[in-house]
């Protein structure tokens, strides 16, 4: 059971549920759909609210107002190296809200989960938002667990380690399929010695990208491309791409194609190749992920996996609005935008070829 409020924090819906001897969902129904709750249960819940001084003003207001038109988006923490993809996704999410006749309310990350949950409760039960979208979900992320426990509608961009067993809805791009596209592409261009930069066991999405790489190499018989040293753990910054590519090139059997988990790593790989006098696409192929503006910055265009960002955003908004009784887990396919970093023919012409989609 939840501990009773000690005067230093506001009572939560879970506190009310514990005191009344009912579920969190029942408390939510008393507040939002009292007509479906028996009079006896409503009386118990209201008594618990009164004893705990549980936002009586917000509860009363919620009964008077129509469903709010705002959807809250919990902004991810600031990324020290920047994240062009998530910047673009924010615009897609705003457009998806507008298309559904909703407005987007931005919420900054708080110092801890409890503070964030209190803020979310204030906004939802105060009828300021209809629900929330959260992103940058980690394997053991407490946010979806707590939002679900408190009966607050939300949809997650990404999955926790519970994946398809999670009792809440989520949507994301198919990370494994996206990397498989990149591996298949360089294989078709004749490459048989590959490397993967960006393995990260602490991220569900990055694990999926690594699994996609391993699955494609296994399917194509590229055993040496998954040998020790060919799958390299790293962050997603440009400097890591520069350093790791140099290390790979200095091995006894260097790869002829480098698959990167992020465009920033791919850009770092391009820098190293050019510093070594090698031509990206002709001598060594390089692919990135997320198809950010970085892929078209400079003379070398970077072949990159493109997520269906606008579709992902639209699915998340739909899940918040519709609140499906059975959780939906939505995987959307990715595409590959081919540029000169994997096209040897591009460098045989005066001007590199324009990008094409696969």
Describe this structure in words.
The protein has 358 residues and is of the alpha/beta class. The chain contains 12 helices and 13 strands. The protein starts with 12 loop residues before the first helix and ends with a strand. The strands form 2 sheets. Strands 7-6-8-9-10-12-13 form a 7-stranded mixed β-sheet, with helices on both faces. A 6-stranded parallel β-sheet has the order 2-1-3-4-5-11, with helices on both faces. The protein has 3 domains: 13-64, 434 Repressor (Amino-terminal Domain) (Orthogonal Bundle), CATH 1.10.260; 70-172 and 309-332, Rossmann fold (3-Layer(aba) Sandwich); 175-307 and 337-357, Rossmann fold (3-Layer(aba) Sandwich).
Quick recap of the structure?
This protein is an alpha/beta fold and 358 residues long. Helix 1 crosses helix 3, helix 5 (84-99) crosses helix 12 and helix 10 (238-249) packs across helix 11.
CATH architectural group of the largest domain = 3-Layer(aba) Sandwich
**What percent strand?**
5-15%
Strands of the largest sheet, in order across it?
7-6-8-9-10-12-13
Largest sheet: 7 strands, mixed
- Count all strands and give the number: 13
Nearest-integer average pLDDT: 90
Overall geometry comes to elongated
Keywords:
Rossmann fold; transcription regulation; 434 Repressor (Amino-terminal Domain); DNA-binding; alpha/beta; 3 domains; 358 residues
Write the layout of secondary structure elements.
Blueprint: H1 13-20, H2 24-32, H3 39-52, H4 56-64, E1 70-74, H5 84-99, E2 103-107, H6 113-125, E3 132-134, H7 142-149, E4 154-157, E5 170-173, H8 175-188, E6 194-199, H9 204-220, E7 231-233, H10 238-249, E8 257-260, H11 263-275, E9 285-289, E10 303-306, H12 309-322, E11 329-332, E12 335-338, E13 356-357
